[in-house]
Amino acid sequence: MPATVVVGTQWGDEGKGKLTDLLARDMDMVVRYQGGHNAGHRIVVDGEAFALQLVPSGVLYPHITPVIGNGVVVDPAVLLEELDKLTAKGVDVSRLLVSGNAHLIMPYHQELDRLTERFLGKNALGTTKRGIGPAYADKSSRVGLRVQDLLDPKIFREKLDVVLHEKNLILTKIYNRPALKASELAARYLDELAPRVAPMIADTVTVVHDALARGERLLLEGAQATFLDLDHGTYPFVTSSNPVAGGACTGSGLGPRDLTGIVGIAKAYVTRVGAGPFPTELDGEMAELLVERGHEFGTNTGRRRRVGWFDAVMTRQAARLNSLTEIALTKLDVLDTLDEIKVGVAYEAQGVRYEHPPYHQSVLHDVTPVYETLPGWKTDLTSCTSYDELPARAKDYVAYLQEITGVRISVVGVGPGREQFVRPS
Ligand code: GDP
Ligand code: IMO
Ligand code: MG
Questions:
Q1: Helices (H), strands (E): how many in the chain?
Q2: Is beta strand 3-8 parallel, antiparallel or unpaired with respect to 261-267?
Q3: Is 380 assigned a catalytic role?
Q4: For residue 378, how far is its CA from the centre of ligand 2 (angstroms)?
């Protein structure tokens, strides 16, 4: 039975939340498989905006079981706050399940994220400062605390004592910060947070496989994106998990053969938050225009996003890294007022033409994009309800992107609202 992955093909904020919400109409379960509250997935329903961080975007539908998979890092205080906000907006969050194997973000992770960024100075990555990197580092170092440890106070305290001893040495001796008290952390996590989280904790591997066996349809919601992937992104300017479709297996417990569709989400242009290479980046008036028309400010952090032209080199690479079966193209309407639109079709560096990103980062930093220029359509697309209603030049742009990336475009976004999309026939 089908399990479909939604994966970002650029540097995040492509509209994964909106697409997950859209596709979830025909699904039974939505599973987050990596990342944490560094994600900000915005969905607009009847003019009301929801900015989801940890809770899977399918939560807005009563028929969906939302699942936080083992590959996610969970700050339980943030999770509960998000659930309270959703409840206050009338969303029923009682079906949410959280993997017992997911790792916990602890206060020292967040503090170390901030301190490391400050320590790096001008080489800072521009992380979201949510403790994501340090939490995944502890997972890899095998000193992480997991969600299931909340159910066993003795184990929780034992593990915390060991790990906090080392963290406090780092905090006090290297960063000259006060030590954290194990008793205070244990009281917060075990007495305040655990009682509320406990009922959600589940063996989510069994949950997803039982759902498949019952013939249910699963959607795996990626956070971040292909070029923020720890292995395949623009390292070190990446996040600390594997957003690529392969991560949907490790982060949920599904096997590779369970995946039946991989939808890559691509903006009709490109954005990036934080530091790192960005070959098609724009500045000046055109950048201002795209930031303003696209409201390109972080969903949760409020940071201004860097903007650039669509980059087919990245999309081709994303197609092979993720086995994309289709692309959902978002925010086409943001380009509505442009006279002409550029598309990066290849890179050039030192006389060499690249159809895929050069593996060597020093070359990538140096590439010059090769652009094709297409005419704009100068028409408001936001009220289009069928593909036929798009002006010919907008259709040409979509067809051109499809041709140069080699991936079918199955959905086109024409506005932030849940209903603002059209499907090419
Ligand atoms: P995500 O992190 O991939 O889920 O993306 P974000 O939610 O962080 O950022 C995407 C932004 O674009 C959000 O503000 C969405 O409401 C908005 N959005 C999504 N699709 C469209 C679209 O087709 N047109 C416009 N104008 N906005 C869109
Ligand atoms: P969604 O799911 C855009 C970026 C940060 C930084 C780098 C590392 O909304 O697309 P981290 O805090 O993860 O250690 O930061 O990754 N980043 C994102 N950029 N969208 C996101 O999530 C991001 N999550 C992390 O800006 O450059
Ligand atoms: Mg986002």
A1: 13, 20
A2: parallel
A3: no
A4: 32
